[in-house]
Amino acid sequence: MNVRRLSSVLAVLVALIFTASTLSAQLFSARKVPKVLEARFVTGEAVWRELPVRPDFQRDYDKIWQTAINTILEHNFDIATMDKDSGYFRTLPNSKVVTMGTNWVYKVQISIKLVSTPGDPKANPPVPITVDKVRLQVSGEVTNVDARGGIRADFLGYDQVLLQSLFQDLQAKLGAG
After folding, report:
1. 36-174 classified as CATH 1.20.1530
2. How many CA atoms lie within 13 A of 59 on its CB side?
């Protein structure tokens, strides 16, 4: 009787060890960002980059606003929300920046905020709003999904390659020196 009980316990332990090692292997493979993203995706808090605006553009809020929007649209992103008065807009998440072709999904979203000094329309002559900086953020999410649609791994961070590309593009159009 004790031998049967012991063999049953051993069989259960072997099954648990096998299941645990298989599960561990699956989880371990999903703990790292895929190689195709290693050079561009930085895990952690998404950063804001600030671009000082050229002095000859600083008082042309409409031109800066439209240039920022056009630049993002040129990079094949769609606008999700915008508020011109506050100087903020954000794109829809874009999953076409890097094609994964596996059970990984990569989405990138861009946010832009114009940092300005309020004008005084009642002054004589009126003082227009001055845009001092353009703030840019390129946040990303990398998700590993199993066959049933369950999430096995999820990483938040930012796309440093796209951030640098957009920053340089905006710098060429709006940037100071």
Report:
1. no
2. 8
